[in-house]
Amino acid sequence: MNRLEQIEQGYLKKDVPKVIIGSTVRVHVRIKEGEKERIQIYEGVVIRKKGGSNRETFTVRKVSYGIGVERIFPLHSPFVTQVETIREGKVRRAKLYYIRTRTGKAARIPEKERVYATKKKKGPATTQSVQLAPPAAAPEADTPS
What we know:
This protein has one helix at residues 3-9, and strands spanning 24-33, 36-50, 57-64, 67-74, 80-87. It is mainly β. It has one domain (3-107): SH3 type barrels.
């Protein structure tokens, strides 16, 4: 490991969010306006990831008032406080630049179907022996014979 990589290791985040191409995400960004500081949420579709180590970035595209807006976020930036994945898209490309030319329903990305694993028991089925109590005897009615 050379000197530059050693310096970069200190700037890596410990808990890196999982960003997947085609997923719809909410990025919480810390904004400084004068002396005030607030968190702004930017929601859109991840159209690319680029770089590695602490230089890794991802681009999020959204349509705001009919105009497409793209913003590039550094993954390890201290200004990116949180990345929430809202839904995962079903895509077969590494870069989704073709979405820039599409409008309306054609610009939508289908949602990935999530398959939840079911837990299967290993080994023979376990059975428990349960003893049932005999049914309570019904009180016999006194009938004159």
